[in-house]
Amino acid sequence: MEPHARLYSAAALYDLAFSYRDVGAQCSFLRDTFHALRGRHARSFLELAAGPARHALEMSRSGLASTALDRSPEMAALARGRAAAAGLELTYVVSDMTRFHAPSRVELAACLLSSTSYLLTDEAMLAHLEAARAALHEDGLYWLELTHPVELEGTRKSQTRWTMADGRGRVLVDWQGDPARARHGIWQTRVLLRYEPSDGGPPIEIEDVAEQRALTERQARELAARSGWRVEATFGDFDANVGLDDARATRMLLALTPSS
User: Fold this and answer.
1) Nearest to 90 by CA among 142, 128, 46, 131
2) Domain extents for the chain?
3) Cβ–Cβ < 8 Å for 83, 57
4) Residue 108 forms beta bridges with which residues?
5) pLDDT, tens digit, for every residue of 102-158?
6) What are phi and psi of 96, to 5 degrees?
7) What is the CATH code for 152-212?
8) Superfamily of domain 5-150+215-258
9) How far is residue 15's CA from residue 157's CA, in Å, rounded to a whole number?
10) How far apart are the first and last CA of the chain?
11) How far apart are CA 200 and CA 195, in angstroms?
Protein backbone atom coordinates (compact mmCIF):
# COMPACT_ATOMS: atom_id res chain seq x y z
CA MET A 1 0.00 0.00 0.00
CA GLU A 2 1.16 3.53 -0.76
CA PRO A 3 2.22 5.62 2.28
CA HIS A 4 -0.75 7.26 4.01
CA ALA A 5 -2.96 5.98 1.18
CA ARG A 6 -6.17 6.21 3.25
CA LEU A 7 -5.44 9.82 4.12
CA TYR A 8 -4.62 10.93 0.58
CA SER A 9 -7.58 9.12 -0.99
CA ALA A 10 -9.89 11.26 1.17
CA ALA A 11 -8.96 14.26 -0.95
CA ALA A 12 -11.55 16.77 0.28
CA LEU A 13 -10.86 16.02 3.95
CA TYR A 14 -7.11 16.22 3.39
CA ASP A 15 -7.57 19.56 1.67
CA LEU A 16 -9.60 20.93 4.58
CA ALA A 17 -7.07 19.61 7.10
CA PHE A 18 -4.22 21.50 5.43
CA SER A 19 -6.14 24.64 4.51
CA TYR A 20 -4.31 26.55 7.25
CA ARG A 21 -1.44 27.17 4.84
CA ASP A 22 -1.32 30.69 3.39
CA VAL A 23 -1.05 29.57 -0.22
CA GLY A 24 -1.25 33.08 -1.64
CA ALA A 25 1.66 34.32 0.48
CA GLN A 26 3.73 31.21 -0.24
CA CYS A 27 3.21 31.56 -3.98
CA SER A 28 4.12 35.24 -3.80
CA PHE A 29 7.37 34.28 -2.07
CA LEU A 30 8.19 31.72 -4.77
CA ARG A 31 7.47 34.18 -7.59
CA ASP A 32 9.22 37.12 -5.91
CA THR A 33 12.34 35.10 -5.14
CA PHE A 34 12.49 33.87 -8.72
CA HIS A 35 12.27 37.46 -9.92
CA ALA A 36 14.97 38.58 -7.47
CA LEU A 37 17.35 35.81 -8.55
CA ARG A 38 16.60 35.81 -12.29
CA GLY A 39 15.61 39.39 -13.03
CA ARG A 40 12.41 38.33 -14.77
CA HIS A 41 9.01 36.93 -13.90
CA ALA A 42 8.43 33.18 -14.10
CA ARG A 43 5.95 32.16 -16.76
CA SER A 44 5.45 28.48 -15.92
CA PHE A 45 5.08 26.41 -12.75
CA LEU A 46 5.09 22.73 -11.79
CA GLU A 47 3.85 21.49 -8.41
CA LEU A 48 5.08 17.99 -7.54
CA ALA A 49 3.28 15.75 -5.03
CA ALA A 50 0.62 18.40 -5.49
CA GLY A 51 -2.35 16.80 -3.76
CA PRO A 52 -5.27 19.23 -4.24
CA ALA A 53 -2.90 21.52 -6.18
CA ARG A 54 -3.69 24.68 -4.28
CA HIS A 55 -0.34 26.21 -5.21
CA ALA A 56 -0.65 25.29 -8.88
CA LEU A 57 -4.15 26.77 -8.97
CA GLU A 58 -2.92 29.97 -7.32
CA MET A 59 -0.07 30.22 -9.82
CA SER A 60 -2.55 29.75 -12.66
CA ARG A 61 -4.68 32.51 -11.15
CA SER A 62 -1.56 34.72 -11.27
CA GLY A 63 -1.05 34.04 -14.97
CA LEU A 64 1.53 31.23 -14.97
CA ALA A 65 1.07 28.15 -17.13
CA SER A 66 0.59 25.63 -14.34
CA THR A 67 0.96 21.88 -14.06
CA ALA A 68 0.32 19.67 -11.04
CA LEU A 69 1.51 16.11 -10.52
CA ASP A 70 0.48 13.52 -7.95
CA ARG A 71 -0.13 9.78 -7.99
CA SER A 72 -3.56 10.12 -6.34
CA PRO A 73 -6.45 10.07 -8.84
CA GLU A 74 -8.73 11.38 -6.09
CA MET A 75 -6.55 14.47 -5.66
CA ALA A 76 -6.42 14.96 -9.42
CA ALA A 77 -10.21 14.83 -9.69
CA LEU A 78 -10.62 17.37 -6.88
CA ALA A 79 -8.11 19.80 -8.40
CA ARG A 80 -9.47 19.48 -11.93
CA GLY A 81 -12.98 20.15 -10.67
CA ARG A 82 -11.85 23.27 -8.84
CA ALA A 83 -9.92 24.52 -11.84
CA ALA A 84 -12.98 24.09 -14.06
CA ALA A 85 -15.26 25.81 -11.53
CA ALA A 86 -12.88 28.77 -11.26
CA GLY A 87 -12.21 29.00 -15.00
CA LEU A 88 -8.49 28.32 -14.49
CA GLU A 89 -6.12 26.48 -16.79
CA LEU A 90 -4.48 23.53 -15.05
CA THR A 91 -2.74 20.47 -16.41
CA TYR A 92 -2.84 17.63 -13.88
CA VAL A 93 -0.64 14.57 -14.40
CA VAL A 94 -1.26 11.41 -12.36
CA SER A 95 2.18 9.90 -11.87
CA ASP A 96 4.80 8.97 -9.29
CA MET A 97 7.19 11.74 -8.28
CA THR A 98 10.21 9.45 -8.73
CA ARG A 99 9.47 8.51 -12.33
CA PHE A 100 7.54 11.07 -14.30
CA HIS A 101 7.78 13.09 -17.48
CA ALA A 102 6.36 16.60 -17.38
CA PRO A 103 4.37 17.71 -20.45
CA SER A 104 6.86 20.55 -20.98
CA ARG A 105 9.78 22.17 -19.20
CA VAL A 106 9.02 24.88 -16.67
CA GLU A 107 10.89 27.80 -15.14
CA LEU A 108 9.65 27.36 -11.58
CA ALA A 109 8.80 24.16 -9.71
CA ALA A 110 8.17 23.13 -6.11
CA CYS A 111 7.61 20.07 -3.94
CA LEU A 112 6.08 21.31 -0.71
CA LEU A 113 4.89 20.20 2.73
CA SER A 114 7.82 17.79 3.15
CA SER A 115 6.30 15.48 0.56
CA THR A 116 9.70 14.00 -0.29
CA SER A 117 9.83 12.64 3.28
CA TYR A 118 8.09 9.54 1.89
CA LEU A 119 11.19 8.79 -0.19
CA LEU A 120 13.01 6.59 2.31
CA THR A 121 16.24 5.84 0.44
CA ASP A 122 18.93 7.85 -1.30
CA GLU A 123 18.06 6.00 -4.50
CA ALA A 124 14.42 7.12 -4.37
CA MET A 125 15.39 10.71 -3.62
CA LEU A 126 17.94 10.73 -6.44
CA ALA A 127 15.35 9.37 -8.87
CA HIS A 128 12.99 12.16 -7.86
CA LEU A 129 15.63 14.85 -8.21
CA GLU A 130 16.71 13.55 -11.61
CA ALA A 131 13.11 13.52 -12.88
CA ALA A 132 12.59 17.05 -11.56
CA ARG A 133 15.85 18.14 -13.20
CA ALA A 134 14.58 16.95 -16.57
CA ALA A 135 11.38 18.99 -16.10
CA LEU A 136 13.15 22.31 -15.48
CA HIS A 137 14.65 24.91 -17.78
CA GLU A 138 18.43 25.31 -17.53
CA ASP A 139 18.14 28.47 -15.43
CA GLY A 140 14.99 27.45 -13.60
CA LEU A 141 14.43 27.15 -9.84
CA TYR A 142 13.17 24.09 -8.00
CA TRP A 143 11.99 24.56 -4.41
CA LEU A 144 12.07 21.77 -1.84
CA GLU A 145 10.22 22.27 1.43
CA LEU A 146 11.74 19.82 3.91
CA THR A 147 11.52 19.01 7.61
CA HIS A 148 13.77 21.37 9.55
CA PRO A 149 16.91 19.35 10.46
CA VAL A 150 16.79 20.33 14.15
CA GLU A 151 13.67 18.17 14.50
CA LEU A 152 16.01 15.18 14.26
CA GLU A 153 17.69 16.52 17.40
CA GLY A 154 14.46 16.93 19.37
CA THR A 155 13.53 20.57 18.67
CA ARG A 156 9.94 20.76 17.43
CA LYS A 157 9.30 23.12 14.54
CA SER A 158 6.04 21.74 13.13
CA GLN A 159 2.59 21.42 14.66
CA THR A 160 1.23 17.95 15.42
CA ARG A 161 -2.38 18.64 16.44
CA TRP A 162 -4.79 21.10 14.91
CA THR A 163 -8.42 21.68 13.91
CA MET A 164 -9.76 23.24 10.72
CA ALA A 165 -13.36 24.03 9.85
CA ASP A 166 -15.52 25.23 6.99
CA GLY A 167 -19.25 25.82 6.66
CA ARG A 168 -20.02 22.10 6.55
CA GLY A 169 -17.99 20.74 9.44
CA ARG A 170 -14.64 20.52 11.12
CA VAL A 171 -11.68 18.17 10.92
CA LEU A 172 -9.44 17.29 13.86
CA VAL A 173 -5.92 16.13 13.00
CA ASP A 174 -3.45 14.31 15.23
CA TRP A 175 -0.15 13.82 13.39
CA GLN A 176 1.74 11.41 15.65
CA GLY A 177 5.34 11.20 14.54
CA ASP A 178 8.58 12.26 16.17
CA PRO A 179 11.66 12.79 13.98
CA ALA A 180 13.78 12.79 17.14
CA ARG A 181 13.04 9.05 17.42
CA ALA A 182 14.31 8.41 13.90
CA ARG A 183 16.84 5.72 13.05
CA HIS A 184 18.94 6.62 10.04
CA GLY A 185 16.59 9.57 9.57
CA ILE A 186 13.45 7.39 9.34
CA TRP A 187 10.56 7.34 11.78
CA GLN A 188 6.96 6.09 11.80
CA THR A 189 4.06 8.52 11.61
CA ARG A 190 0.53 7.62 12.68
CA VAL A 191 -2.18 10.02 11.51
CA LEU A 192 -5.59 10.22 13.14
CA LEU A 193 -8.18 12.33 11.33
CA ARG A 194 -11.76 12.86 12.50
CA TYR A 195 -14.32 14.83 10.52
CA GLU A 196 -17.44 16.06 12.30
CA PRO A 197 -20.25 17.36 10.03
CA SER A 198 -22.03 20.49 11.21
CA ASP A 199 -25.44 18.93 10.52
CA GLY A 200 -24.95 16.29 13.20
CA GLY A 201 -24.34 13.48 10.74
CA PRO A 202 -22.04 10.56 11.57
CA PRO A 203 -18.36 11.46 11.86
CA ILE A 204 -15.72 10.13 9.51
CA GLU A 205 -12.57 8.71 11.06
CA ILE A 206 -9.35 7.83 9.26
CA GLU A 207 -6.29 6.22 10.80
CA ASP A 208 -3.17 5.72 8.72
CA VAL A 209 0.47 4.81 9.29
CA ALA A 210 3.57 5.42 7.17
CA GLU A 211 7.31 5.83 7.48
CA GLN A 212 8.91 9.19 6.76
CA ARG A 213 12.47 10.41 6.40
CA ALA A 214 14.20 13.69 7.19
CA LEU A 215 17.51 14.89 5.78
CA THR A 216 20.20 17.01 7.34
CA GLU A 217 21.18 20.06 5.32
CA ARG A 218 24.43 18.33 4.38
CA GLN A 219 22.60 15.22 3.16
CA ALA A 220 20.19 17.33 1.11
CA ARG A 221 23.05 19.25 -0.49
CA GLU A 222 24.97 16.07 -1.29
CA LEU A 223 21.96 14.39 -2.89
CA ALA A 224 21.25 17.54 -4.90
CA ALA A 225 24.84 17.64 -6.18
CA ARG A 226 24.77 13.96 -7.13
CA SER A 227 21.68 14.52 -9.29
CA GLY A 228 22.86 17.60 -11.18
CA TRP A 229 21.72 20.44 -8.92
CA ARG A 230 23.32 23.13 -6.83
CA VAL A 231 21.70 24.91 -3.90
CA GLU A 232 21.22 28.57 -4.82
CA ALA A 233 19.38 29.76 -1.72
CA THR A 234 18.28 28.46 1.68
CA PHE A 235 15.52 29.75 3.94
CA GLY A 236 13.75 28.73 7.14
CA ASP A 237 10.28 29.79 6.02
CA PHE A 238 8.44 31.43 3.13
CA ASP A 239 10.02 34.71 4.16
CA ALA A 240 13.19 36.18 2.68
CA ASN A 241 14.14 37.50 6.12
CA VAL A 242 14.08 34.09 7.83
CA GLY A 243 17.22 32.01 7.43
CA LEU A 244 17.57 28.36 8.31
CA ASP A 245 19.22 29.17 11.65
CA ASP A 246 16.70 31.87 12.56
CA ALA A 247 14.69 31.15 15.71
CA ARG A 248 11.53 31.75 13.64
CA ALA A 249 12.43 29.03 11.13
CA THR A 250 9.86 26.23 10.87
CA ARG A 251 11.17 24.28 7.87
CA MET A 252 14.11 23.90 5.50
CA LEU A 253 13.48 25.54 2.14
CA LEU A 254 16.07 24.89 -0.55
CA ALA A 255 16.11 26.61 -3.93
CA LEU A 256 17.85 24.31 -6.42
CA THR A 257 19.08 25.19 -9.88
CA PRO A 258 20.70 22.93 -12.50
CA SER A 259 24.44 22.81 -11.94
CA SER A 260 25.34 22.77 -15.63
Assistant:
1) 46
2) 5-150+215-258, 152-212
3) yes
4) 45, 141
5) 999 999 999 999 999 999 999 999 999 999 999 999 999 999 999 999 999 999 999
6) -80, 140
7) 2.20.25
8) Vaccinia Virus protein VP39 (3.40.50.150)
9) 22
10) 37
11) 11
